[in-house]
Amino acid sequence: MESVFREEHGRAVAVLVRVFGDVDVAEEAVQDAFAEAVRRWPVDGPPPSPPGWIITTARNKAIDRLRREAARAGKQAQAVLVGEVEPVEEGAVPDERLRLIFTCCHPALALQARVALTLRLLGGLTTAEIARAFLVPEKTMAQRLVRAKGKIRDAGIPYRVPEEADLPGRLSGVLAVIYLVFNQGYGGRDDLAAEAVRLGRVLAELMPDEPEVQGLLALMLLIESRKPARMVDGELVLLADQDRGLWDRALVDEGLALVRGCLRRNRPGPYQIQAAINAVHGDAARVEDTRWDEILQLYDQLMAVAPSPVVALNRAVAVAEVEGVEAALAIVDGLDLGRYYLFHAIRADLLRRLGRRREAAAAYDMAIERTENEAELAFLKGRRVRSGGG
Known about the structure:
Blueprint: H1 2-20, H2 23-44, H3 50-68, H4 70-73, H5 75-81, H6 96-104, H7 111-123, H8 127-134, H9 138-154, H10 167-186, H11 190-206, H12 211-225, H13 227-230, E1 231-232, E2 235-236, H14 249-265, H15 270-282, H16 292-305, H17 309-322, H18 325-333, H19 341-353, H20 357-369, H21 374-387
Antiparallel strand pairs: 1-2
Helix pairs in contact: 1-2, 1-3, 1-6, 2-3, 6-7, 7-8, 7-9, 7-10, 8-9, 10-11, 10-12, 11-12, 12-14, 12-15, 14-15, 15-16, 16-17, 17-18, 18-19, 19-20, 20-21
């Protein structure tokens, strides 16, 4: 059941949004369909086509809801009931779930609202999971989601495929969505990571002349290439300690080729620069061969085009290798990222390298308190024990 939910939730919501034109109706109907599956499948056994069963059941439940509300829902609900909903054209976006991303990324919504809403609808992420991705309290994220849905409803924002000329204007939100979906998957949900890469490939085919699209795909492929070496015997392995012979060389080579193509275009953007950083890692046969000076230069460029505390935190890792651990710690201590577990994890590692064991142990404790991922917890606890410091 969990596997079906992860794989089919986004597609089912996308289909229902296309049919009924209402995100609340679609989302509630799909949730009701999965609840019905939880009740019936253990008794009756799973159907021959679980995705088809979910979509059909959700559609019927949506019609039942609209029938109950027909008196106050007006002509739209009645039109649905008598089958007057016109089929949706394929338009410029041929993929059902990609269409959902583009429709959620309407320019009338704030960028963070677009991303959060799409994570909710496409990936079926809980409000708590989305809040952690944005480093905000769960209550804050719940309010954002409610406001986004309310704005869509009150402003009458249509759920339709944008015209081809409108696609570039939606691009920044769409790229942000896909990358956040990928990050959620890389944190433990393999289905979401695979879905993000698939959507990245579709988008790269749809917009082959957009270098940031190619950059995002390259970035995801290069990160995904290291997946076979990231976990060994159930334990998390840092990049510096990974067996590079386990990396998926086909994905590395594909990512490097995309980065080279981006360099030829000479229209740098945040995803291309991040891909280039990962390309430097991917090009090093041994960790000792890593060209940290190039990585630091790329982070400087990234800070110039897309500055953020998280970018500054990652840049500090490169600073530690080029300018020394003290210089890196000074940067980290100046950042306001107390809610972010990686802030505390990186700070703990820097303190450990400086021999400040008690402070390192306290920082590891802070990191442990702020992550729920089992592999990350086990890794941090192991580092905490080895750091000493009481």
